[in-house]
Amino acid sequence: MIKTHQPNKYMIEALLFLSYVLFGMSWQATALFLPDIREQMGVNSTAELSWITNVVSISRIIGTFLASTILIKLGTKKAVSLSMLLMSIGAFAGLVNSYFMLLLVRFIAGLGSSLIIAFFAPLVFELFEPKERPIVNGMNSVALNLGMAIIAFGLGAMMSLFNNNWQHVLLTISVGSLIIFILWLVYGTDTKPAVAKSTKSYTIIDGLKEPFNWLYALTYAGTLSFYLILLTFYSHANIPAVKYIFLMGIVGTIFGIIVAQKTYYRRPILQISGAVQILAIIGVHSQTWGWFDSQILVNISALMIGFFLFFPMTSLVLFAQERKGATAENLGPTFSLFWSISYLISAFAPYIFGMLVDNFNGNYSVAFVFSTIASSSFLIGAMIMKETKAPKNAS
């Protein structure tokens, strides 16, 4: 397949990547500001507070489901422009004074981010050669985590700069998104993807009929549920090592890219990662459950969670991109469904977790059992899914 507009592919990738890093910064900053939001906006319960995350999940169900259609109908430049514009509206999070308006702003910004995340895989497939895809896929998978790590380690300095005003911090981050949007208007371009030339369309309806798409999404749904719970609540659950999860996610991604480039099969990487994820999550919870009174164990487990949540992500994306007959056209609906189904299921997780905390008078023990069980989907799915690449010795 002949690639078009190749000189612009690095600019396209850079702007998409940076836009998602900034969204990650906004997401994590909002999570860390939950006590301030709860106090200033009169939020009464942990379950109610979980809507900070839930509205983003709901917006992503909608956005990712529509993403492939939007990309085909509008073309790359207009579709990405729309997503970046919506993300820029997040600037109003620093200006509103009611919880409802904050949730509305978060919903709109989340809608924009959901389009970006669903655009990643088909655009990478269209723009980059197979040998480049592990690196680009890995970068895209860690963009959100990188933004969160920046906030986890740099929020103190930002708060000092803005006189401890959390709303000004959110406003500044969203202004960064607005700058990326303007740069995209100047430098962004249409990729003229192969889907426009196809004689046979592959739609979301076609994708819904494929068992692979369902199993692929369900495999990730539980891990995503755990991650959303972690982002929303774990920094307030007496687990101070949580910020190192973001840092180790970056390390895990780098190693994941290297391993994906040097290995042929993807399924073993997914299986090993799924098993270690569960063990590490149990380790993080062990102190709260009263199994081991060891902060060292909790800290080491947190580092392992961060590493093994992101180590398999490059291989997970390649798992679909390397299927026989994969094209930019059918990857659009595949990844739209991957994200929309995953978020449809995981949208309920933070609310259930918060409700369990409320029902047990602020004790996280039972809620941690729920998040541990949810995380097991990755290992179960990796055991069930069949390798998508042909055997090495196949002619």
TrEMBL record:
The keyword Transmembrane helix applies. Keywords: Membrane, Transmembrane, Transmembrane helix. Residues 12-389 form the Major facilitator superfamily (MFS) profile domain. It holds the Pfam family MFS_1. PROSITE patterns: MFS (PS50850). The chain crosses the membrane at residues 12-31, 51-72, 79-101, 107-128, 140-162, 168-187, 214-235, 241-260, 272-290, 296-319, 331-353, 365-385. GO terms for molecular function: transmembrane transporter activity. InterPro entries: MFS, MFS_Cyanate_Porter, MFS_dom, MFS_trans_sf. This is MFS transporter.
